[in-house]
Amino acid sequence: MAKNEIKTEKEKKEKKPGKIKRFFSWIGRKFKELKSEWKKISWASKKATFKNFALVLVIVSVFAVAIAGVDILSGMAVSGLNFLGNMIY
To answer: Which of 29, 41, 51, 60 has its CA 20 to 30 A from that of 12?
Structure first.
């Protein structure tokens, strides 16, 4: 019985393609899947892209100014407290 089991294992190994062949076959399948997914993409128009880009620039600019304002005000507040602390001591 052990010989039969060994023989079937050898037959299974012989029927199975090599690791390199399986690897390249796997790569080929992935590229086919990638190609089919790439065809499903719907791109935005140039006008919509520009509109969204402009909106992002405006929002980022507003937040940058707001953060800079908070930073300047908090720096002035800390300087004022430091000045008052030096006057007391």
So the answer is: 29
Contact 66, 59 (CB under 8 A): no
- Distance, in Å, from the CA atom of 51 to the CA atom of 12, rounded to the nearest integer, reads 60
Amino acid (one-letter) located at 52:
N
Which residues of the chain, if any, have pLDDT below 70? 1-17, 89
Beta-carbon contacts of residue 44 (< 8 Å; ≥ 6 apart): 52
Phi, psi of 12, rounded to the nearest 5 degrees = -65, -40
pTM over 0.70? The answer is no
Cβ 17 vs Cβ 25: under 8 Å: yes
Amino acid in the structure at residue 14 = E
